């Protein structure tokens, strides 16, 4: 759909042929889609706001009439009408103020509702998107779409509603009363406005380009902010305050520069219309002179016309400004539809069936995997069968591809070659929901929410009872430390668990995985932050839990996987050695080398049996 763009936002669109106010095809399509998706469903509210606005405009249009009437009578020396004029003015003013109140609330409500609905739907869509898509943009950039971009849309919608309804109706009413007062003067005066069309069209294009850039920069700024504020420990310990402040300052300044540019481009519109307004007033005086002296018009007509013109100046400027607002809104709508139009690539195939677990055998059949932009594949021809109920350990240097393998099982990414099967069913052919509910994954970087300890464990099963939660915590050797927290299970743990130690966080994540009670357990260095003693405790608890479950365990300390049914050593994305601890030590290959290297570096660890300490 981006193919229809003639005025490309990145400034490549050098085609300056179409110097009209008409929107290009892409914009028209966006606008009608936006209208159908978000505004048409609230047509009742829109109609209500429209009716209020029309009434308001009519009340506005009555002013010039009253003024004409007063002046004509005043000049004729007739005073009997005075009380009536005063009553009329008070009545019109009262009506206007009441209408203004309801009109404002009704329109703002539509704008606010729109924002809320768009945020909710865009977030829902985004959070259901592929993991790969979600990790492609930084959280800050995505946040900015949901806040800044939608804000632009809200403002544009409000401005459009006000302009399309209030301002243009006021202008129509005022112009109507002008023609009623004296058509000839009106014709001359309004003749100046068509000259504004061309410059407005060119200004609009600049606004669009500038706005697209501003939105991108706002995304960058939000992203940087989130990153810097999320890394305060690093910033403090490395004394990076000035670096961080300097980097942020550059981003703030860039946003300032772009916004200022936007303001200046938009201000040109208003100035242009202001100048035209002046020309129009001069026109009125000039023509009125001839018309009054020839007796075709009265002084009252002249006064009424001038009042109408002055009153029309503000709504006319607003309508001019709308062109700019609309372009800003269109740039943001483009960006939001960019998100909403993305289709998840790993999703249920048509006719996907729920995964049928028999004993939970996970088999990797010549699996290949390549990260989107990486130059070399992360997994090459990985073949392994993890029999139901077995515990298989993956070991190897960092970067060997262990985490990648574990992430392929719940389809965070889809294999790029070969297949992964669970009990003979290709994981791409079963429903994602059934696949993911059969798997509990504790990943390397534990994620917790800023909520209570209880809630963070309950992530594994949202409707768990207190007994279940405590049992899971005990199984993860977390119960003791939880009781020492200020409010026990009700303790808030802070953003991502800042108020807990690394080992405590890991134990909560483990408890959540245990609570999930899934037949397949994937542990990616799940106990790496624990001291040896706590790790032993957790290992003992886990040994109980993993009985009868298929487990793939990535171990940081090799001593913890000695009892695995099978140990696979990975290097550069593939398996180089498999066997039990005893077999591999006896072979004296890659595994033995890893164990020896770790023994030398990790004095904390007792030597596993059968390892010569040479
Ligand atoms: N999201 C990613 N995008 C691109 N490359 C990645 C990504 N995650 C990991 N890699 C690369 O894939 C390889 C395997 O990484 P990983 O599976 O995390 O290794 P391990 O868990 O064994 O330390 C590494 O070379 C790493 O740089
Ligand atoms: Mg890893």
Write structural notes for this entry:
By secondary structure, the chain is an alpha/beta fold. It has two domains: 25-340, ABC transporter type 1, transmembrane domain (ABC transporter transmembrane region fold, Up-down Bundle); 352-438 and 550-614, Rossmann fold, CATH 3.40.50.300. It is 60% helix and 9% strand. The chain has helices at residues 25-39, 43-75, 82-127, 131-136, 139-181, 183-190, 197-229, 232-237, 241-293, 299-340, 402-408, 432-437, 453-458, 466-475, 479-483, 502-516, 532-546, 581-587, 590-601; strands at residues 362-369, 379-386, 391-395, 417-422, 425-426, 439-442, 520-524, 550-554, 566-571, 574-579. It has a six-stranded mixed sheet with strand order 6-7-8-3-9-10, sandwiched between helices. Helix 2 (43-75) packs antiparallel against helix 3 (82-127) and helix 2 runs parallel beside helix 5. Adenosine-5'-diphosphate is lined by residues 371, 374, 378, 396, 398-404. Residues 402-403, 444, 524 line the site of magnesium ion.
């Amino acid at each position: 759909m981006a193919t229809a763009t003639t005025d490309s936002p990145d400034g490549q669109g050098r085609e300056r042929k179409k110097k009209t106010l008409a929107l290009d095809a892409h914009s028209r399509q966006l606008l009608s889609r936006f209208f159908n998706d978000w505004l048409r469903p609230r047509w009742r509210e829109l109609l209500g706001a429209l009716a209020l606005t029309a009434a308001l405009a009519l009340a506005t249009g009555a002013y010039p009439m009253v003024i004409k009437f007063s002046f004509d009578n005043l000049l004729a020396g007739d005073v009997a009408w005075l009380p009536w004029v005063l009553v009329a003015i008070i009545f019109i003013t009262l009506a206007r103020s009441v209408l203004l109140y309801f009109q404002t609330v009704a329109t703002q409500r539509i704008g606010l509702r729109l924002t809320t609905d768009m945020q909710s739907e865009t977030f829902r869509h985004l959070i259901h998107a592929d993991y790969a898509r979600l990790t492609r943009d930084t959280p800050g950039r995505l946040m900015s779409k949901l806040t800044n971009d939608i804000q632009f849309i809200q403002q544009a919608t409000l401005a459009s509603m006000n302009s399309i309804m209030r301002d243009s109706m006021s202008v129509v009413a005022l112009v109507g009363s002008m023609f009623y007062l004296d058509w000839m003067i009106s014709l001359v005066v309004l003749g100046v406005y068509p000259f504004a069309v061309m410059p407005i069209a060119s200004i609009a294009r600049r606004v669009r380009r500038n706005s697209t850039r501003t939105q991108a920069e706002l995304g960058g700024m939000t992203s940087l902010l989130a990153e810097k504020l999320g890394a305060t420990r690093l910033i403090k310990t490395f004394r990076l305050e000035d670096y961080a402040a300097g980097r942020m300052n550059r981003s703030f300044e860039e946003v300032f520069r772009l916004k200022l540019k936007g303001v200046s481009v938009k201000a040109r519109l208003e100035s242009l219309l202001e100048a035209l307004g002046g020309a129009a007033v001069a026109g009125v005086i000039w023509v009125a002179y001839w018309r009054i002296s020839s007796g075709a018009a009265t002084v009252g007509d002249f006064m009424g016309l001038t009042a109408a013109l002055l009153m029309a100046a503000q709504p006319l400027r607003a309508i001019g400004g709308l062109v700019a607002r609309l372009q800003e809104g269109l740039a943001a709508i483009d960006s939001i539809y960019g998100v909403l139009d993305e289709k998840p690539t790993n999703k249920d195939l048509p006719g996907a069936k729920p995964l049928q677990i028999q004993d939970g055998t996970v088999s990797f059949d010549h699996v290949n995997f390549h990260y989107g932009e990486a130059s070399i594949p992360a997994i090459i021809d990985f073949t392994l069968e993890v029999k139901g109920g077995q515990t298989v350990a993956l070991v190897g240097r960092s970067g060997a591809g262990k985490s990648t393998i574990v992430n392929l099982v719940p389809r965070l990414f889809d294999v790029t070659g070969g297949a992964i099967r669970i009990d003979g069913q290709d994981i791409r052919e079963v429903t994602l929901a059934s696949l993911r509910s059969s798997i509990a994954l504790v990943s390397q970087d534990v994620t917790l929410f800023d909520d209570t300890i209880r809630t963070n464990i309950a992530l594994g099963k949202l409707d768990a009872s207190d007994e279940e939660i405590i049992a899971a915590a005990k199984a993860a050797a977390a119960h003791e430390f939880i009781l020492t927290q200020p409010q026990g299970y009700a303790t808030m743990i802070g953003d991502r668990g800042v108020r807990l130690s690394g080992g405590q966080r890991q134990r909560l994540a483990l408890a959540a995985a245990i609570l999930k009670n899934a037949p397949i357990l994937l542990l990616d260095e799940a106990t790496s932050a624990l001291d040896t003693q706590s790790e032993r405790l957790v290992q003992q608890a886990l040994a109980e839990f993993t009985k009868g479950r298929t487990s793939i365990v990535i171990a940081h300390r090799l001593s913890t996987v000695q009892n695995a049914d099978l140990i696979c050593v990975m290097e550069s994305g593939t398996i180089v050695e498999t066997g039990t601890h005893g077999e591999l030590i006896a072979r004296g290959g890659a595994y033995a080398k890893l164990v020896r290297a770790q023994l030398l570096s990790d004095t904390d660890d007792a030597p596993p049996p059968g390892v010569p300490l040479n």
